[in-house]
Amino acid sequence: MKCPFCGDPNTQVVETRENEDGDTVRRRRRCVACDKRFTTYERVELQLPQVVKKNGSRTEFQREKCKASMMLALRKRPVTTESIDAALDRIEEKLVQLAQREVPSDRIGELVMRELKKLDNIAYIRFASVYRNFEDVDEFSDAIREVKKPQRAKP
After folding, report:
1. What is the mean pLDDT of residues 14-32?
2. In Å, how far from its chain's centre is CA 135?
3. Could you give the 3-state DSSP secondary structure of residue 82?
4. What angle is formed at CA 81 by the lines to CA 87 and CA 63, rounded to 5 degrees?
5. Which terminus, N or C, of the chain has the lesser number of Cβ atoms within 10 Å?
6. In whole angstroms, what is the distance from residue 97 CA to residue 63 CA?
7. What is the pLDDT of residues 60-80, one digit of tens each?
């Protein structure tokens, strides 16, 4: 690692620590030439696939765009930010596990719907109505039946 103060390539690691989640390593370094100290961080860089849109164009997967869509569906719903971040983590993890260079935007929409269904049924219906482009009340009814819990038979 090159020293940011004098540019010398000879530095020593003085201390190494992992963060609580274990996904980042913090290293304190000392420059052999100028004796100044600095900190570096090491993180895993995941290669997410390109998103192929319906019109055929390609773009990078954008977690913030995905989060914004979920937040819109979850507006005024009792779901914590931590739950939303965990859902986004699962979506990204699934995309990495697919091990594909490109993934259709439809696939991402389905992953988002699956996570919203786990978080909040109302948010799921909201997202599905836009994503699936509901045209009439029957499509809403079908989606509601899909999330509605079956009633237990009374003895």
Report:
1. 90
2. 30
3. helix
4. 50
5. C
6. 16
7. 999 999 999 999 999 999 999
- Provide the token pair at 80: 């914590």
Burial classification of residue 31, based on how many CB atoms lie within 10 Å of its CB (0-12 exposed, 13-18 middle, 19 or more buried): buried
- Residues of 37-56 as b/e, b for ≥16 C-beta within 10 angstroms? eeeeeeeeeeeebebbeeee
What are the boundaries of each domain within the chain? Answer: 11-43, 50-147
Q: Which pair of structure tokens corresponds to residue 22?
A: 């274990």
Retrieve residue 85's tokens. Answer: 């971040």
Question: Which residues, 6+ apart, have CB-to-CB distance to 59 below 8 Å?
Answer: 50, 51, 53
Say whether pTM exceeds 0.85: no
Nearest-angstrom CA–CA distance, 97 and 103:
12
Band of the pLDDT at 146, cuts 50, 70, 90?
Answer: confident
Confidence check: pLDDT of 124 > 60: yes
| Dist CA 83 CA 93 (whole Å) | 15
Distances (CA, A) of 123 to 76, 97, 114, 147: 10, 26, 11, 11
Q: Which two tokens stand for residue 62?
A: 């954008």
